[in-house]
Request: fold
Amino acid sequence: MEYRVLLVEDEKDLAMIIADILKTQGYDVAVGKDGQDGLEKFASFRPDIVVADVMMPRLDGFEMGRRIRRVSPNVPILFLTAKNTIDDIEKGFEIGGNDYLKKPFEFRELLIRIKSLLRYHHPDGKEEPRLRIGHFIFDISTQQLDIDGQCTELSNLEARVLEKLARNIGKTVDASELMVSVWGHDELSNRNSLHNYIHKLRRVLRRDPSISIINQRGFGYMLRVMGGHDR
Reply:
């Protein structure tokens, strides 16, 4: 299958280099020169993945990503940026970004991350897109939790944390493993953020009293479902 990659990058030379590398790997590539151009090409090109710089003229990458999310909740978005504060990274994830690569980067790492996102979002049936958690149904692709006809839409980060726990019900997931799965790396500054997302998930899941997220101090977190509704 030939995947379509929309690359949105205002540095012309860098965009040309990345596009050439992607084409040699068999990808069909369209290039946008700024966020506004990227939005227009997204509508016409219908990419399988978006790779976008953050700092761009006319429309920055975050705003472009936010608008893309309004019309396409599932297409993976990988942000490229020299901005490297935790606040910037969290903002990128909160608006619906799926991964974040800091400049300067190795082109090989970019390819690895693109392949990983495509494999995750186009799994060819290898992973179940809907998971049962107690009396909840968790739709991974739409990031929605449904119970008795009531639907809750999770943020991108909440959904990623929950998926990791839900695929390991009854098992302790190491905190470091969770952070690598969600943020791509384990940093001390992410631990408070992880704790906050766990707290938010507990509030959503408490509609089913059989479900609990247990903090295994010094190790990680366990999603427990009592009464046999874990699958």
Helices lie at 12-24, 35-45, 61-71, 86-94, 107-121, 156-166, 175-183, 188-205. The two ends are 32 Å apart (CA to CA).
